[in-house]
Amino acid sequence: MDEWFTSALRMTTRLIEIGGIAIIVIGLMAGTIGYLRRLVVGAPGTEAYSGYRSSVGRAILLGLEFLVAADIINTVAIEPTLQSLAILAGIILIRTFLSFSLEVEIDGRWPWQRQDGQSREKAS
Questions:
Q1: What is the CB neighbour count within 10 angstroms for residue 14?
Q2: pTM (predicted TM-score)
Q3: Looking at the predicted structure, is the pLDDT value of residue 120 above 50?
């Protein structure tokens, strides 16, 4: 592979990683601001906290997607070795577990489970 192409791919993966980290940090800050705003307005503490957890969880999920994308590009395009592929598989397994755990925390159900209203509508 050309040296400039490898350098461009490395820079691209670095930018995607930075984007993923920025999404998590900005989402955390926005969620905190929203939480404090809800408390000041007078929303119940449990409602404000539930919204806070939900918004932070969504930011983490989106940031993880960016980080996984950067890892895939890095492994497939830059360092396609069996060792790097095994490391990528481990990273994806761990991040997939985290994503499923966050989905359950946010929605209160597994991602593949339909809500009661959706399953009844499709059955009709």
A1: 12
A2: 0.72
A3: no
